[in-house]
Design brief:
Layout lengths: L13 H12 L17 E8 L17 H9 L1 E3 L2 E2 L4 H10 L25 H7 L3 E7 L17 E5 L11 E4 L2 E4 L4 H15 L5 E10 L7 H4 L19 H27 L6 E7 L21 H4 E2 L1 E4 L8 E3 L3 E2 L3 H9 L15 H5 L10 E5 L2 E5 L3 E3 L5 E3 L15 H24 L5 E3 L4 E5 L4 E3 L3 E2 L9 E2 L7 E8 L1 E12 L8 E6 L4 E5 L27 E10 L2 E9 L9 E15 L1
Parallel strand pairs: 1-8, 1-9, 2-12, 3-13, 4-5, 4-8, 18-23
Antiparallel strand pairs: 2-11, 3-10, 5-6, 6-7, 9-11, 14-15, 15-16, 16-17, 19-29, 20-23, 21-22, 23-28, 24-27, 24-29, 25-26, 25-28
C-alpha cells in the first residue's frame, strides 16, 4: 500500500471532513490558488478485552480498582449504557467482525473448530482493506487457525498473537506472526501493545484499521508483580451480590489484570497524542462477555456463559473528537452486531456485504441522541436457550420477564403484570431458536482445512484421541496429547485437502528417557503413509507458573521439538489423518502438540 491515498469521499463522510473544510474555507484568497487538501479518512483502533465484565472499570462504579485511561474514553467520547455482546468469546468476535448473529457465520462455540468463521463471510477488515486501509490484528483471534480461516486470510495484512480460544502462559509464550511460529517477548498484553504501537507509527501517514483483541483478564490468572502487588492483600470494598460465591484470590488477580489493560490502553492513547493522530483516530473499547468469575458487577445477575445481564452486558466507548461530542451517554440498546455498520459508516467505508447484516448503524444516535430510533429486540442464544432484550425488558432463557430499567439485577419476574409482552417475546425467542438451530445444524459438519495455504498446522486442540491418550487439560484450546501408553492408541484429524500433492509432515513432540525408539506413523485413510523412529529424548519440564495467582490451575505448557516424519501424498478432498505407533519399546510413546503439513509438490485441486 502506498503511503499517500487520494480518493473522493462520500457525502456521509461530513463528520470526518468538518475540521478540514473549516480550515480550507477560512484561508486567505491567495491560498485558494494552491492545490486543495482532501481530508484523510479516519484511522480506527478497536480494543476488545477478554472476560472483562461491565463492572470491571472504575467508570462503572467499581472502587476496587482504577482504570483512568479507559474511563477517559467515556469522558471524551460516547458511552453506551445498554450495550450487549455474547455469553462467550468466539461468538462475540464473529458478531463484531460480520455484523451478523454468530450462528449464521458458522460459529457455534469455543473449542475444536467451533469458533471458525465461515470463509464466505465478509469481515470488517475486508471492508476497510478494500477501502485502502492498512489492517492489522494483535492478540487473540479465536475465529479459525488453518487457512483460509486464519486472520491473514480474513482481511488483516498483519497478525501477531494466537488463534486459539485461550492461551496457557502469559510470559514470552509461543505465538503466531503472519502464520509463522515465533516467541513472544515479555508479558503478553504488553507485547501485543508494543506491536500495535509499532504498526500505528509505521502507518501514521495513511489510514489504518488496528484491531487489538487483548486476551485478559481471561485465565490463566498470570499477572506481572508490578500490577499484582497492589491487590495481593487488598481488602475488597465491593463484592459480588452473592459474596459466598466469590473467589477473592481470583478477583484480586482479575483486578490486577484489568489495571494492566488500562495501562496499555493509556500507552496507545499517549502514542496517538505524540503522533498528533488524536483528532483523526476513532478509538473503540468493549469486552467479549461478562466476567469470568463471581465478582462485583453492579449487582447484575450471571457471569460469563450466562444469557442474563451479567453475562451479556459490556462497556462500549467510542472516542472521535471531530465526530462525537465528549461525555455523551446513550441509553438505546445496542450490540456487537452494530459495530461493523457503525464504524464503516463513520469512516465513509462502503459496508454493503453479500449477506444481510443483523446489526444497524448507530450513527444517527451519535449525530443526535434524540434522533428517531425504531424499537428493536436484541437476541442471545446458547444452544436452544434464547434471551431477548428490548429497550425496557429482558425475557430470560427460562421465559421469565424482567423490567431492566428498574430491575437491573433481574430479581422480580413481571410476566404476570405484562402477559402480552411476555407471550410476544416468547414467540420471538422460539422463532430465533428455530432459525439459529438450523444454522447450527448446517455448519456442524466441517472438517479442518489442509492445503488452502502453503503450510497448515493441525493442533491437538483439533484432533481426537483414541485409547488411553488424554488431553493435558480439560479444555481443548491450549492442550497437548499425553498418556500414550498402549500400542493401539492413536490420534485422528478430520481433514479436507484443498490442494492435493506431496506434503512434508513435521511432528511437534516430547519423548521421555526410556521411551525413545518408538516408531511413529502418519497415514491418510486409504492412502499414503510415512513413518520415522524417534531417536532423540526431549523431555523438558512444564513452564514455570509462579506468576499464576490462583491456587488451582489447569494450564500446562512446555516446549516441543519438531521432527520430520516424511513426505506424505495427500489427495484432494475429505479424509482422515491418523497418527499412531508401529511399536512401543518403552512405557509410553510421545506427547503431541501439533502436526505441520507443508506443501512441496502440488497436484490436483479439490
Amino acid at each position: 500500500m502506498q503511503s499517500t491515498v487520494v480518493r473522493r469521499l462520500p457525502d456521509r463522510h461530513r463528520l470526518c471532513c468538518l475540521v478540514a473544510i473549516l480550515m480550507i474555507c477560512t484561508q486567505p484568497a491567495a491560498a485558494s490558488e494552491a492545490k486543495p487538501t482532501v481530508a484523510r479518512p479516519p484511522n480506527v483502533i478497536v480494543i476488545l478485552t477478554d472476560d472483562q465484565g461491565w463492572g470491571d472499570l472504575s467508570v462503572s462504579g467499581n472502587r476496587n480498582l482504577a482504570t483512568p485511561h479507559i474511563d477517559s474514553l467515556a469522558r471524551d467520547g460516547v458511552s453506551f449504557e445498554n450495550f450487549y455482546v455474547c455469553q462467550v468469546c468466539a461468538p462475540t468476535r464473529a458478531e463484531f467482525l460480520t455484523g451478523r448473529y454468530y450462528p449464521r457465520t458458522g460459529v457455534s462455540g469455543v473449542s475444536r473448530g467451533e469458533g471458525r468463521l465461515n470463509v464466505d463471510e465478509t469481515t470488517i477488515a475486508d471492508l476497510f482493506r478494500a477501502a485502502g486501509y492498512a489492517t492489522a490484528a494483535f492478540g487473540k483471534w479465536h475465529n479459525g487457525t488453518q487457512p483460509p480461516y486464519h486472520p491473514n486470510d480474513r482481511g488483516f495484512d498483519e497478525f501477531y498473537g494466537f488463534t486459539s480460544g485461550h492461551w496457557g502462559h502469559y510470559f514470552s509464550p509461543p505465538l503466531d506472526r503472519n502464520g509463522k511460529r515465533v516467541r513472544g517477548k515479555g508479558f503478553i498484553v504488553d507485547d501485543f501493545t508494543d506491536h500495535a504501537l509499532a504498526f500505528i507509527e509505521a502507518h501514521r501517514d495513511q489510514p489504518f484499521f488496528c484491531y487489538v483483541p487483548f486476551n485478559t483478564p481471561h485465565s490463566p490468572m498470570m499477572v506481572p508483580d508490578r500490577f499484582y502487588e497492589k491487590f495481593e492483600q487488598a481488602k475488597l470494598q465491593q463484592r459480588h451480590r452473592d459474596p459466598d460465591r466469590e473467589d477473592v484470590m481470583m478477583t484480586r488477580a482479575a483486578l490486577a489484570l484489568c489495571e494492566n489493560i488500562d495501562w496499555n490502553v493509556g500507552r496507545i492513547l499517549d502514542r496517538l497524542e505524540a503522533l498528533q493522530l488524536v483528532d483523526n483516530t476513532m478509538v473503540v473499547f468493549f469486552s467479549d462477555n461478562g466476567p469470568n468469575s463471581f465478582r462485583w458487577n453492579g449487582g447484575l445477575k450471571g457471569r460469563k456463559g450466562s444469557l442474563d445481564e451479567g453475562g451479556l452486558r459490556s462497556p462500549l466507548f467510542i472516542r472521535w473528537p471531530p465526530g462525537i461530542h465528549p461525555g455523551t451517554s446513550l441509553p438505546q440498546i445496542a450490540g456487537a452486531i452494530d459495530l461493523l455498520p457503525t464504524l464503516t459508516e463513520l469512516a465513509g467505508v462502503p459496508h454493503q456485504t453479500a449477506k444481510p447484516q443483523d446489526g444497524r448503524s448507530l450513527v444517527p444516535l451519535l449525530r443526535d441522541a434524540a434522533a428517531e430510533w425504531p424499537p428493536r429486540e436484541l437476541l442471545s442464544i446458547k444452544g436452544r436457550q434464547v434471551s431477548v432484550r428490548t429497550q425496557r425488558f429482558r425475557l430470560d432463557s427460562s421465559g421469565r420477564l424482567f423490567e431492566i430499567a428498574v430491575d437491573r439485577g433481574q430479581r422480580t419476574d413481571v410476566a404476570a403484570r405484562h402477559p402480552q409482552m411476555a407471550q410476544r417475546l416468547r414467540r420471538v425467542a422460539a422463532r430465533h431458536a428455530e432459525l439459529m438451530g438450523a444454522c447450527f445444524r448446517a455448519h456442524a459438519d466441517r472438517p479442518f482445512t489442509v492445503g488452502y495455504g502453503t503450510s497448515t498446522t493441525l493442533t491437538a486442540r483439533d484432533g481426537v484421541p483414541h485409547g488411553t491418550i488424554q488431553r493435558s487439560s480439560k479444555a481443548p484450546n491450549n492442550s497437548f496429547f499425553t498418556n500414550w501408553t498402549e500400542l493401539g492408541d492413536h490420534i485422528t484429524w478430520d481433514i479436507d485437502v484443498g490442494q492435493g500433492g506431496r506434503y512434508d509432515a513435521i511432528l511437534h513432540y516430547t519423548c521421555a528417557a526410556g521411551d525413545e525408539g518408538v516408531t511413529i506413523r502418519l497415514a491418510i485413510a486409504r492412502g499414503d503413509s510415512v513413518q520415522t523412529r524417534v531417536v532423540d529424548v526431549f523431555d523438558p519440564p512444564l513452564w514455570d507458573k509462579s506468576k499464576e495467582r490462583v491456587a488451582k490451575s489447569h494450564y500446562f505448557v512446555k516446549d516441543f521439538r519438531p521432527l520430520h516424519v516424511g513426505r506424505l501424498t495427500l489427495p484432494p478432498g475429505r479424509s482422515t489423518l491418523t497418527l499412531d505407533a508401529v511399536d512401543l519399546p518403552g512405557k509410553r510413546a510421545i506427547d503431541v502438540h501439533s502436526v505441520d503439513l507443508i506443501l512441496r509438490d502440488a497436484t490436483a485441486t479439490r
